[in-house]
């Protein structure tokens, strides 16, 4: 589908955009909301960080060499925009706020990360075979997606084994799936699309 050099450029560009849109910008917005005491945006960003933690889990799973990390990557691309647009009460409260630089910045980021996630999801779908076939996972195309996580490992976990970091990814995934399952099967029916459910 892509030549090796084009794919490598695409993968590294995707990871750089991920750092910008999923880490740096929402972190700046979160700090800004605390300074401005914007509860609705702050609440939505808190939900975002919980959901987006699946991206960090995916990085550790890829470091551990788990093929199903391609499934968790796709899940993250779907769940992130869903978490940002799902809550009716927060959306209404944000819409009712007067126009401020924070509101404009948040709206711009929310649309940008939604577009980034949708495009990324289509890209991830074309590489889902990496999750279901050992031969595909071992191919150069699939292994290209592991290059940035492995470089991250060299920078931040140089003295740690791949197996241990993969184990941390598994533990994180189990906790994440239990939390998601609890929300879907126990809270969603009572809470609906209201984020302020107690």
Short description:
The protein is an all-alpha fold. The chain has helices spanning 4-36, 39-63, 69-85, 88-96, 101-125, 129-132, 134-138, 140-144, 147-156, 162-191.
| Chain-averaged pLDDT | 94
Q: In what range is the share of β-strand residues? A: under 5%
Reported for the largest beta sheet, the result is: none
Low-confidence segments:
none
Order of helices and strands: HHHHHHHHHH
- In angstroms, what is the radius of gyration? 18 Å
Question: What structural category do the secondary elements indicate?
Answer: mainly alpha
Give an account of the 3D structure.
With 198 residues, this protein is mainly alpha-helical. It has one domain (4-191). It has ten helices and no strands. Helix 1 (4-36) packs antiparallel against helix 2 and helix 3 packs antiparallel against helix 5 (101-125). The model has no long low-confidence stretch (mean pLDDT 94).
Keywords, please?
single chain, 198 residues, mainly alpha, 10 helices
Could you give the topology of this structure?
Elements: H1 4-36, H2 39-63, H3 69-85, H4 88-96, H5 101-125, H6 129-132, H7 134-138, H8 140-144, H9 147-156, H10 162-191
